Amino acid sequence: MIYPIINYGDPVLRKKATPIVPTDYPNIKELIADMFETMHAAQGIGLAAPQIGMPIRLFVIDFTVPADNAPEPINFKKAFINATILEETGEESPFTEGCLSIPGILEEVYRRPNVKLSYYDEDWNPQEDTFDGLAARVIQHEYDHIEGTLFIDRLKQPLDPLIEKKLNDISNGIIDINFMRQAKSSDT
Asked: Is 72 a catalytic residue?
């Protein structure tokens, strides 16, 4: 099932998500599969539950880095339940980020290259892992969503007036979000 993606301006994107209790979500694997399907349909590499209107601590990530961009191909697909960042290390560096909930806006965001995380996998097994590179960056982006933070909140410079206008247009439903998502996916 493909869920509609919540757009910038909806209060759910600014709400700190609540932990998931296993008995409240007996079909968590189905929800995770639906989130992956929704993310793929939108041409994304990460999706957090608040982006589909569910203020719970769940996000999914799926991306591939081809061998010409890494020493060997990287296939990364994982679900994170009730994640907590334990540590972020390394020197911050910039990377251009976008967001499925804020289509058409790409901005440079500074993040640390390493992140240590505790979470549950989709089988409710507790995990503690350290991630680096693109995985760390996407995890931090999606983690921000479950904390009620958006990538535009992390910009080092004030928003350009044109970006502010686009954000207001998205928030007010003036921009056709579906058209922008289709244009974005055909550009890639």
From this structure: no
